[in-house]
Amino acid sequence: MYKRSLPVGRFAPSPTGRMHFGNIWAALLAWLSTRSEGGTMILRMEDLDPDRSKKSFGDQLMKDLIWLGLDWDEGPDAGGDYGPYIQNERQNLYQSAFEKLVECGRAYPCFCSREERTAASAPHRGETTGIPEDPCLLMPESQRQVALQTRRHTWRLNNEHEEIVFTDLNYGEQRHQLDMARDHVVLRRSDGVFAYPLAVVVDDGAMGVTQVVRGSDLLDSTAVQLYLMDLLGYPRPAYGHVPLLVDAQGHRLSKRQKSMDLGAMMASGWTPEQLIGYLGFRAGFTKVLEPVRAADLVGVFDWKTIGKEDVVIDEEDLASARDLMRGKAGR
Known about the structure:
It comes from Acidaminobacter hydrogenoformans DSM 2784. The chain is an alpha/beta fold. The protein has a domain at 8-86 and 243-329: Rossmann fold, CATH 3.40.50.620. 34% of the residues lie in helices and 14% in strands. The protein contains ten helices and eleven strands. Strand 5 and strand 6 (172-177) form a beta hairpin. It starts with 7 loop residues before the first strand and ends with a helix. Residues 116-121 have low confidence and may be disordered.
């Protein structure tokens, strides 16, 4: 069911708030990479976190993407043969994959209490996901069976310290030796919520995604996802990681910077063509800063121009760029 004849890309936002400048950048590059190959674009809502995800945010995300000119072929509203396209409606698929990992000995119960609150979200650059020498791996079977009935527990990945090698579309060859300190990921939380590392692998694999384009803060988590793909029998997609948009202090742009969420930017006078024109210019696709449509950049998309270093965004420079493009549009 997951074999496709065309390249398949995806944008998979979490419906936890308004789109912001950083994920507009990631969405644009993912969209351009897929469209430049004549591929199919999937929109998937990653609403694993029940405390933060809201349907209203998902509805607004779709409106924002349409406003930006970033369309999709399959998604929550468009349907498709590989749905559902909302994670909360895919629990049976995660359960089947989880049971397979338990049966092959790669998932085991962990009675430690660390990282419970963040297990259902993607790890970002610099974050570790585990602890070395997990005593739960060494627990006698009789003791484990008693603990399963009496103690709260997560289920974690036993990665066997394998080396994963892949070639990133932007950063080239990557070699990652899995270890239990860095890659000791949670697969299912103690409250029963399936965690991001398992869900994203099942979704990409079952939907036949052939190309994953996302921020470089997720580069380090790719090896674990490829390991899980191998265990579950899915073909490996190609991965392309793009530089982050950061502020002057080097902090990743996020929803915390309210002035850079899309609602605030629209209110300050940004048009979709100005936003796309600015991001296309910073990606090296255009030589002149001017308003353009996303569709106008499909033919000039090139991984070689994107670069590998984080892109610093200064709010004053951003406002100046908007005003400059506003003047050009008015000529």
